[in-house]
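Standup notes, structure subgroup. Blocker cleared on the zinc ion input:
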Amino acid sequence: MSAQHITLLTFGFFDKNLLKEVAEAVALGFRCEVVCKEARIDLGEYFNAGRRQYNGDRLLSVVGTLHLPDSMKTIGLFSVDLYIPILTYIFGQAHLGGEAGVASMFRLGNELYGLAPELLLQNERFIKEVIHELGHTFGLLHCYDVSCVMRSSAYVEDIDQKEKYFCANCYAALGFIGAVAK
Ligand SMILES: [Zn+2]
Ligand SMILES: [Zn+2]
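Run returned:
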């Protein structure tokens, strides 16, 4: 396997078609190969019973320890509710310029906000968040361009406003990996 690939590491069940969509979007976004793997850990160890959520800091560390040197980056994909101590919840997080990131589907579905489910929209949000967190691992900070995937998102509405592409500045900053400019 090429050393220039990104690894999508799933924790728990993920729909095969969704995974394929995410892999294709990441491959296109970062112009590299993408490898999908399944992590086998007991998520229960990372559950905070008081918050009824999973510890995003500890899970980010786990992804870091599961990262293999033959891969450029590894992002853990989750469907459980992630938190970090200073925030009510997170869609994902990553080590800036590091090797690991995490992203979760949990808060991306309309049904959580009392709206009719829209699976395509939920998947699209997830793809944006995965690319966003991977962007951080490649050293990108938050961007103020309204449509740039690196714009920060506190709510799903914020995710819907941006696209799954990098703006020209972020694209230039990525440089060496030749991500798609938009
Ligand atoms: Zn971010
Ligand atoms: Zn940007």
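Discussed briefly. Helices lie at 16-30, 56-66, 119-137, 156-161, 168-174.
Next: hand off to the docking folks.
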